[in-house]
């Protein structure tokens, strides 16, 4: 059970745009119905229910003053981190060595090799973003920067990409991929069934 979900939630699941579309729908808020099956990722789907809804209201300043102060400080820190990150990117895109620039600017730079999708030693957001990148022919085009949820700004310089070899997948990994694809297709089939059932249903609301 999750409390305090809003339109601005930072919850990894309920910040998903697909869930946000139905989160505050009349069916869920007024009638307390379960949501439809919503696919949030390949092979992953959720059904949820709203147990209670609290109308938006203005809280006294004394109750939120500290929250506002912390949020403003966090936003300023995040903006500063991005400005520093952008300055760092300009220098390495111009051809300077990342290690030397990082040392000069008092930043942390790490070189990682053989990073995989399931690497648990690196920030999950960074790994996810890295595996959306394509290797460009120009080194400067392989330098990317982005904010991450904790307010930091990450800079990535992609050096090489190793294509996966299906022949190297072991039996357990192959089974995992098969289960994931089966779940994805199953969720899609069930969603199609729901859509047809809703379209053809004759419902009388009293």
Q: In one word, what is the shape?
A: flat
Question: Which regions contain 5 or more consecutive residues with pLDDT less than 50?
Answer: none
Number of strands: 4
Q: Tell me the Rg in angstroms.
A: 23 Å
Topology as a string of helices (H) and strands (E):
HHEEHHHEEH
Q: How much helicity do the residues have?
A: 40-55%
Major β-sheet annotation: 2 strands, antiparallel
Structural class: mainly alpha
Strands of the widest sheet, in order across it, are 1-2
Task: Give an overview in words.
- Helices cover 43% and strands 8% of the residues.
- The model has no long low-confidence stretch (mean pLDDT 80).
- The relative contact order is 0.10.
- A two-stranded antiparallel sheet has the order 1-2. Strands 3-4 form a two-stranded antiparallel sheet.
- By secondary structure, the chain is mainly α.
- The chain contains 6 helices and 4 strands.
Pick out its properties.
single chain, two-stranded antiparallel sheet, 206 residues, 43% helix, mainly alpha
Would you spell out the secondary-structure blueprint of this structure?
Blueprint: H1 17-23, H2 26-29, E1 38-41, E2 44-46, H3 61-93, H4 98-105, H5 124-130, E3 143-147, E4 153-157, H6 171-200
Quick rundown:
The chain is mainly alpha-helical.
């Amino acid at each position: 059970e999750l409390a305090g979900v809003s339109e601005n939630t930072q919850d990894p699941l309920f910040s998903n745009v697909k869930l946000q579309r139905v989160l505050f729908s009349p069916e869920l808020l007024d009638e307390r119905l379960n949501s439809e099956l919503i696919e949030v990722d390949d092979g992953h789907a959720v059904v949820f229910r709203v147990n209670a809804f609290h109308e938006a209201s203005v809280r006294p300043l004394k109750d939120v003053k500290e929250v506002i102060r912390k949020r403003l400080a966090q936003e300023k820190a995040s903006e500063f981190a991005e400005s520093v990150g952008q300055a760092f990117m300009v220098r390495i895109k111009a051809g300077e060595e990342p290690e030397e620039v990082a040392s000069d600017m008092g930043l942390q730079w790490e070189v990682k090799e053989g990073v995989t999708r399931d690497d648990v030693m690196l920030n999950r957001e960074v790994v996810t973003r890295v595996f959306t990148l394509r290797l460009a022919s120009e080194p400067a085009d392989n330098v990317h920067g982005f904010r991450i949820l904790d307010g930091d700004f990450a800079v990535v310089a992609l050096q090489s990409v190793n294509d996966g070899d299906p022949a190297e997948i072991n039996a357990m990994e192959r089974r995992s991929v098969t289960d994931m694809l089966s779940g994805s297709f199953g969720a899609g089939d069930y969603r199609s069934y729901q859509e047809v059932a809703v379209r053809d249903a004759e419902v009388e609301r009293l």
